[in-house]
Design brief:
The chain has 148 residues and is of the alpha+beta class. The protein contains three helices and nine strands; from the N terminus they run ββαβαββαββββ. It folds into two domains: 63 residues, Ribosomal Protein L9, domain 1, CATH 3.40.5.10; 73 residues, Ribosomal protein L9, C-terminal domain (Ribosomal Protein L9, domain 2, Roll), CATH 3.10.430. The longest helix has 34 residues. The chain is elongated and about 80 Å long.
Length: 148
């Protein structure tokens, strides 16, 4: 029996997949629970249109994320901090400070866990950090630490 999965089934596949299953499994388990539907011409057409729409949405999102990554890499972000003798900071610049400054600069909210600092920032000047924009897309951000 051919079925179209409506929801993700852990051992079978993801929503939208067309699978060939045993008659009893499809009729007695998948279809009554709403996990699948019989693969008719209408159901197959719906799956194809849904996949095409999902592809267009994914392409648009990828383009927006790529543009955001380029904007992040192009412009440095200034962070002000209290400074003691010899240009050393009282404490350090944290990922939360950078996320707040970056959100102000780009208008896009960032979580502090999306920012990777190789070592604590404890001095004035320019420092480079990585920002995770999307699951497989990172951008290098220049952070300018200035005296408050």
């Amino acid at each position: 029996m051919k079925v179209v999965l409506r929801k993700d089934v852990p051992t079978l596949g993801k929503a939208g997949d067309i699978k060939d299953v045993a008659d009893g499994y499809g009729r007695n388990y998948l279809i009554p629970r709403g996990l699948a539907a019989v693969a008719t011409k209408t159901a197959l057409a719906n799956v194809q249109s849904h996949q095409a729409a999902e592809g267009r949405r994914r392409a648009r999102t990828d383009a927006e994320n790529q543009e955001l990554a380029q904007r992040i890499s192009a412009e440095p972000v200034a962070v002000k901090a209290k400074v003691g003798e010899h240009g050393r900071l009282y404490g350090s610049v944290t990922t939360a400070d950078i996320a707040t400054a970056l959100a102000r600069a780009t208008g896009h909210a960032f979580d502090k866990r999306d920012i990777d600092i190789p070592e604590p920032i404890r001095s004035l000047g320019d420092h480079t950090v990585r920002v995770h924009v999307a699951p497989h897309l990172t951008a290098n951000l220049t952070v300018q630490v200035e005296q408050e």
